[in-house]
Predict the structure of Nucleolar protein 10.
Amino acid sequence: WLSDRKKRALQKKDVDVRRRIELIQDFEMPTVCTTIKVSKDGQYILATGTYKPRVRCYDTYQLSLKFERCLDSEVVTFETLSDDYSKIVFLHNDRYIEFHSQSGFYYKTRIPKFGRDFSYHYPSCDLYFVGASSEVYRLNLEQGRYLNPLQTDAAENNVCDINSVHGLFATGTVEGRVECWDPRVRSRVGLLDCALSSVTADSEVNSLPTISALKFNGALTMAVGTSTGQVLLYDLRSDKPLLVKDHQYGLPIKSVHFQDSLDLILSADSRIIKMWNKNSGKIFTSLEPEHDINDVCLYPNSGMLLTANETPKMGIYYIPVLGPAPRWCSFLDNLTEELEENPESTVYDDYKFVTKKDLENLGLTHLIGSPFLRAYMHGFFMDIRLYHKVKLMVNPFAYEEYRKDKIRQKIEETRAQRVQLKKLPKVNKELALKLIEEEEEKQKSTWKKKVKSLPNILTDDRFKVMFENPDFQVDEESEEFRLLNPLVSKISEKRKKKLRLLEQQEHPDKEEEEEPEGRPSDAESSESSDDEKGWVEEVRKQRRLLQQEERAKRQERLREDQQTVLRPQFYEIKAGEEFRSFSDSAAKQRLMNKTLEDRLKLEAKNGTLNVSDTTVGSKQLTFTLKRSEQQKKQQEAEKMHRQERKALRRPAGHLKSRRKRGRPFP
């Protein structure tokens, strides 16, 4: 009932679904599957079901559906007369018998009474039909006409079967008897009263057992299933059953099959499939599907079971012990070998694992080594019933403790439904409360899944100091805060009120502060419909308040200046520096206040700056460092000294020049 898209999504999530193996594609019916059979060559699997009534043929070599044919009415049972699907006979619930060939519908005929089962006798090409009548109708397929029916002693017949070795025909009646007929002489050769034999000392019978299943195996063995849930195994040479197996469910037996390799019998009712040894009756294994079983088919010479259930899906079970996998799904053997290499641990539901210390507490150390304790790993397995009985004797007040624990759990659950107190940090409580409210609004919003979740500042270690160090406390009285958050006053009133309530919940013994008159505790400031107008008014109000506060501060400073008495201040001059008047510092301050252009002009005028043009058309600036008065005096003294020396050297040079000219000295 799932779409392909949902199946793919389920395979991604569920591991069990992903591990399932789909042997045959679309191996299902629209609503319910009623009967299922395998062709004699083992290549085709045919199944009938509803709704609408139809037959489906699956090709095992292709692992898919070969064809599907819709029918006029529901099918009671069907049989393949050929080795493949080319000749099929259907028995409908409206008394019609329908023949199909390889191309499709071939012929339809009708029997006088409602049919319940039929069998095909190969040597004579006769079809034997049993149903709500004492007669067994015979239809000869070679002549194409009905033959004289067989008259039984029963009011109605439920099932029938023909032995493939000697051709004995047997039919099961509603009276709980099995009548055996010889087709060669058309006379009854034997009668078995199975109803009386099925009643044992342990069984409870509420109604007369009728025959619901019948199956031959070999020349001498026959298994009979009753409507009360018993299976009787007969040897045809005796009228007493060799073995009676009870399903313990009281449901009619649907089908019986023989498994020759392990001498097993597979019997199925609507709830369970049991496999048991035909010699001892010991249970080999059992299968219990989720839905009711309508029919069971054992794939020839293999360990595969096919089931028709009261559900669209038809069941496929593979039991490697019964036989190898069919040729068309031989990979199942490799899968089972891999599973055997990795066995899963067995869970003991009826046993309790206890350690040696647990045994000492229970006083059961004397049982070590006895059959009551089974050693396993570091402890022992003991019967769960024995464990509960001993524990009740050792601790008779265990129920009272259990009851107290349950009451405590209920109280804790009711406490969890109460309003949880929010623990706020010591620093920036209002900011923390604001962040908590924003986080709650994000969780409640509808676009929570579409937006990528951002980290919360409260839980981020990078911002942890902001809520611990008092230096990071937000100053709400500062000018920047009040102008950048013009509407913070309205929101902060609600938040402050919430903070007070939280503090009162954390400290209930603290006395509550009295509220100002005219403002009840539950009063909330009305919000303006025009947000922009309210924002502008709030900004103007904050500006007026800031101006008033600044004016008050200036008046306070002026009042303090008038009250202070001016006293002379003395300064200490460092060694090696000359004292200049305060006018020099004022001139220096005036120079620093001038623009760069004015300062450059002044420097050029004083000679400390030289501006010249270069050959490439750019400007070249040359700065001369300023000298102090002492340096200036020293420079002037050096200049006068050079001039004096130059004047002293001048006569000597004059005499040398006169000698060179040949003039006499005066």
Notes: DSSP finds 14 helices and 32 strands in the chain. The longest strand covers residues 32-38. The chain has a mean pLDDT of 79.
